[in-house]
Design a protein that fits this description.
Layout lengths: L6 H27 L8 H32 L8 H12 L7 E5 L1 H11 L6 E5 L6 H10 L5 H10 L4 H8 L12 H13 L2 H7 L1
Parallel strand pairs: 1-2
Helix pairs in contact: 1-2, 2-3, 4-6, 8-9
Length: 206
């Protein structure tokens, strides 16, 4: 698809053949049903019907290509399998029309719930209580005077469509040294908090 094409032109590329195809197919089928009113020859009737079906199939193909190209442009990995592409299209087109859900809570249970909900809708808002004062989150809260990021990190990962490696990275917990027990994802959010000077902005940009 040409990058210089405007959205309206792209839209006409698939909608016009579809409308014309439906029109011709309607005439072709109607002429078979209403013989006495539409007195076309049998060859004309067949040609109208075949041409209508052909144009409709072109319209459907162009529309599908338009969706596929649009989805691919939003993804970094171009070597995507058809199954993965179908899943992406499903999530982009179907889940975006799902019900709007607001979830309030905290702890491990909230992130587990969010992982389940995102299979049915992508219109999810999570209100996370940040009262965690233990583990790595507690240390960051005490040392940097910031809100504990642990539960929010888990919810971000639950709702995000991340690669497995990226999820493992953000969930990684150091086992030795001065960072023992600290989570890399928490440190990342803490760094973003220092950069933007705002915990809210840090979460938004993460």
């Amino acid at each position: 698809m040409d990058k210089n094409k405007k959205p309206k032109i792209i839209y006409r590329d698939w909608i016009f053949p579809g409308i014309l195809g439906i029109f011709l197919l309607s005439i072709g089928l109607s002429s078979f049903i209403y013989n006495k009113i539409l007195t076309y020859s049998i060859i004309t009737k067949i040609l109208f019907s075949i041409l209508g079906v052909f144009l409709i199939s072109i319209s459907i193909k162009k529309y599908f290509d338009y969706i596929v190209n649009g989805v691919k442009k939003t993804k970094v990995n171009e070597n995507i399998s058809r199954e993965e592409l179908n899943n992406i299209i499903y999530k982009e087109r179907i889940l975006s029309k799902g019900p709007k859900v607001v979830v309030i809570g905290g702890g491990t249970g909230l992130s587990v719930l969010l992982r389940g909900l995102k299979e049915f809708t992508s219109n999810i808002t999570a209100i996370v209580t940040v009262a965690d004062d233990g583990g790595g989150s507690g240390v960051l809260r005490e040392d940097l005077g910031m809100l504990p990021p642990g539960d929010i990190r888990s919810c971000l990962l639950a709702l995000a469509n991340t690669e497995p490696t990226m999820e493992k990275l953000l969930q990684y917990r150091f086992e030795e040294g001065r960072l023992e027990g600290q989570n890399f994802g928490n440190l990342f959010i803490a760094a973003m908090n220092e950069i933007y000077g705002s915990f809210e902005m840090a979460i938004k940009e993460t």
